[in-house]
C-alpha cells in the first residue's frame, strides 16, 4: 500500500510510519517544518513539506495521487490557541478530505477525540471545548462525504509501552490507551473493510488488536 499521513511528525504518526514501512508499505508523512523530514526518514517514510493551513486542496491532492489510504492524524497541539483549533483540527481535516476526493483516494481514516460527540451540548468557550467542537465538526464533515471513511477516537493517550490488547467498539467509555497501541490499530484499520462507515472508540483492554479488528 501507499499511505499518506497528515500530521506525519506526530507521536502516533511516527510510530505508525515505522510499523507500516516495516511491513513493506510506502509511507508519506505531511509536515510543515522541513526540519522534521529526517525523523520521518528515520521511521522509514518519506516527508512531503506542506502547511495544511496555507496550501489549497490541489497541492495536497498531488501528494495523495496514487495513494491507497489517507490518514488524518494532525492537530494544533496543546500549546496552540483557540483559532488554530479550528484551522487545524477542523479546517485542515476538511482540506485533507477534499484533497483525497480530488485524488480519488477512497480509504480515509481520521483520528478524532474521545468526547467529541459531547461538543454540541457544551456551552462554555474553554480551550478544550473549542477543541472538541473542532473535532466534532471535522467528523461531521467526513461522515457527509462519499469516502470509505473511519473515525477513530482514542482515549487519554500515554507513552506507556504498548500491550497489543485493546477495547475497540462504537462506545467504550473513558479510559487510557498507549500511543503504541493506537498506531497498531491504525495500521490494521488500513485493511479492515468492516470499519468503513464506523466511528470507533479505543481504550486499553483485554482483546488482541487483530482479534478486535476481525470482530468488527
Task: Kindly describe this structure.
The strands form two sheets. A nine-stranded mixed sheet has the order 3-2-1-4-5-6-10-8-11, sandwiched between helices. Helix content is 38%, strand content 24%. α1 links the parallel β1 and β2. The chain is built from seven helices and eleven strands. With 216 residues, the protein is of the alpha/beta class. It is globular and about 40 Å long. α1 crosses α6, α3 packs across α4 and α4 runs parallel beside α5.
Q: Major beta sheet, specifics?
A: 9 strands, mixed
Strand order of the largest sheet: 3-2-1-4-5-6-10-8-11
Helix content: 25-40%
Mean of residue pLDDT values:
94
Amino acid at each position: 500500500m501507499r499511505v499518506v499521513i497528515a500530521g506525519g511528525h506526530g507521536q502516533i504518526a511516527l510510530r505508525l510510519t515505522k510499523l507500516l514501512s516495516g511491513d513493506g508499505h510506502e509511507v508519506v508523512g505531511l509536515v510543515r517544518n522541513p526540519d522534521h523530514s529526517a525523523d520521518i526518514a528515520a521511521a522509514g517514510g518519506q516527508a512531503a513539506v506542506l502547511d495544511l493551513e496555507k496550501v489549497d486542496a490541489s497541492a495536497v491532492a498531488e501528494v495523495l495521487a496514487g495513494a491507497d489510504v489517507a490518514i488524518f492524524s494532525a492537530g494544533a497541539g496543546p500549546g496552540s490557541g483557540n483559532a488554530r483549533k479550528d484551522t487545524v483540527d477542523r479546517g485542515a481535516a476538511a482540506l485533507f478530505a477534499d484533497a483525497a476526493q480530488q485524488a480519488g483516494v477512497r480509504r480515509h481514516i481520521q483520528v478524532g477525540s474521545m468526547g467529541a460527540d459531547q461538543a454540541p451540548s457544551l456551552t462554555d468557550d474553554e480551550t478544550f471545548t473549542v477543541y472538541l467542537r473542532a473535532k466534532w465538526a471535522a467528523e461531521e464533515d467526513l461522515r457527509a462525504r462519499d469516502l470509505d471513511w473511519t473515525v477513530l477516537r482514542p482515549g487519554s493517550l500515554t507513552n506507556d509501552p504498548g500491550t497489543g490488547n485493546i477495547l475497540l467498539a462504537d462506545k467504550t467509555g473513558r479510559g487510557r490507551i498507549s500511543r503504541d497501541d493506537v498506531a497498531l490499530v491504525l495500521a490494521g484499520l488500513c485493511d479492515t473493510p468492516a470499519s468503513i462507515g464506523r466511528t470507533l472508540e479505543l481504550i486499553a483492554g483485554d482483546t488482541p488488536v487483530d482479534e478486535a479488528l476481525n470482530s468488527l
